[in-house]
């Protein structure tokens, strides 16, 4: 990839991230106390584009329905776990790594901060200290996740 092309992609990503971040900041911080309706089940999700994941997270929060994160949840999927209407499957595995420009090892600016706004407690600490710098997937169990972030609820089996 040429340097001008890379700079164009980075600039576009930054503009999207800033625009999306402003929209996220204006959303209510909490959902209704008791989610209602049939659960939305997220299972074996490999993550993907962080901006798209934030849009999906906003839709999940607005749905008012319970959200269950089960199986494996990697990369951008991890931002769903802290939804106020979400629970984490007790046998789930969660994976973190540095956000990258697709097809490269380049870690773009801002994206790690976008993701960090959805982490809490020990998960946020580990994200900032280690995981956001790792090109290798760092996997933890659901139980370890809850140990690091006791606010996270485990789903019923």
3D structure, described in words:
Helix 1 runs parallel beside helix 2 (50-63). Strands 1, 2, 3, 4 and 5 form a 5-stranded mixed β-sheet that branches. This protein is 38% helix and 16% strand. The chain has a single domain, classed as Alpha-Beta Complex (2-enoyl-CoA Hydratase, Chain A, domain 1), CATH 3.90.226. It is built from 5 helices and 5 strands. The protein is α/β, with parallel strands linked by helices. The model is unreliable at 2-32 (pLDDT under 50). Strand 1, helix 2 and strand 2 (67-74) form a beta-alpha-beta unit.
**CATH architect. name:** Alpha-Beta Complex
What is the CATH H-level superfamily? 2-enoyl-CoA Hydratase, Chain A, domain 1
CATH class: Alpha Beta
> pLDDT under 50 segments (min length 5)?
2-32
Class from secondary-structure proportions = alpha/beta
Domain count: 1
Rg from alpha-carbon coordinates: 16 Å
The number of E-state strands comes to: 5
Largest sheet: 5 strands, mixed
Alpha carbon gap, first and last residue: 46 Å
Number of helices: 5
Q: What is the CATH topology descriptor?
A: 2-enoyl-CoA Hydratase, Chain A, domain 1
Helix content: 25-40%
**Global outline:** globular
> What is the ordering of alpha helices and beta strands?
HEHEEEHHEH
Mean pLDDT, nearest integer? 84
The percentage of residues in β strands lies in: 15-25%
Concise synopsis of the structure shown:
The chain has 157 residues and is of the alpha/beta class. It contains five helices and five strands.
């Amino acid at each position: 990839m040429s340097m001008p092309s890379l700079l164009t992609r980075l600039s576009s990503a930054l503009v999207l991230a800033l625009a999306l971040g402003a929209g996220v900041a204006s959303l209510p911080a909490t959902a209704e106390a008791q989610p209602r309706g049939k659960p939305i089940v997220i299972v074996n999700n490999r993550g993907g584009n962080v901006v798209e994941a934030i849009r999906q997270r906003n839709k999940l929060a607005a749905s008012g329905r319970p959200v269950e994160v089960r199986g494996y949840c990697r990369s951008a999927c991890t931002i769903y776990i802290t939804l106020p209407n979400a629970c984490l499957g007790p046998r789930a595995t969660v994976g973190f790594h540095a956000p990258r420009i697709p097809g490269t090892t380049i870690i773009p600016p801002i994206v790690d901060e976008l993701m960090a706004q959805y982490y809490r407690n020990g998960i946020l600490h580990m994200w900032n200290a280690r995981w956001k710098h790792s090109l290798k997937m760092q996997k933890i169990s659901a139980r370890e996740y809850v140990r690091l972030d006791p606010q996270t609820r485990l789903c019923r089996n």
